[in-house]
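As a next step, we paired sequence with structure tokens, yielding the entry below.
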Amino acid sequence: MAPAERMGLTRWLTDPQRALFDEMHVADQRHGLDVVASLQASGVRDPDILVAGLLHDAGKGQTGIAARTVYALGQRYGPWIWRIAGLLPGSGAALRGLAEHAEVSATMAAATGCTPRTVELIRHQDAPLDPVAGRQLQLADDAN
């Protein structure tokens, strides 16, 4: 049984969206589920926001834990961390991929038939254009 089926997501996601979720790194699947749980706990029921919560990190791919850790530290403490880590062989491409993951995730979500609103929530996850839904997603993402 695929991860999406085991997690009861078949009622929310179309077949292509489930396939995208199933291809995501297990850490991103877990994070997406945690984001959705936070959204639901705060009263969000809008499927566009919930699907965005599940798929917003699909573009991170199978990036390893070291690059993910460095990327998270750079988000927290500043891009100087990325500049230093980028000097290490092989880390530059991984960090660029993580930096561009919102756009890549949005493109992937669009390709699976997500609504334009869901795609835009994913695309602008770090700097929401939607003052309500985008901010809800951002807060849930940051909390998890």
Summary: Residues 17 and 56 are 12 Å apart (CA to CA). The chain is about 65% helix and 0% strand. The longest helix spans residues 26-41.
